[in-house]
Amino acid sequence: MIVKVIEQENNKVRLVIQGEGHTFMNALIDEILRDPSVDVAKYMIEFQFSDPELLVTTKGKKDPFVVIRDACKRLSKNCDKLMKGLVKK
Fold first, then answer.
1. Which of 20, 65, 74, 84 is deepest in the core (most CB within 10 A)?
2. pTM for the complete prediction?
């Protein structure tokens, strides 16, 4: 996964995440919004086959990159739990 930083400030970041679509982005946004320090978390896909642009802003001094990283870790843990719960028959 290639991530390009478009804009970065103390409590705001805009990224382009290459090769991802609505499925991953919806899950990521949902997980980011679970953090109480997040003010805004949204994404936009301008055209049908364009890469999504992610915008995250935080309240206070929490680094939005930390918020995104933590959300990705929680998503990964949830996927691991699901895979462990699947039983081969």
1. 20
2. 0.86
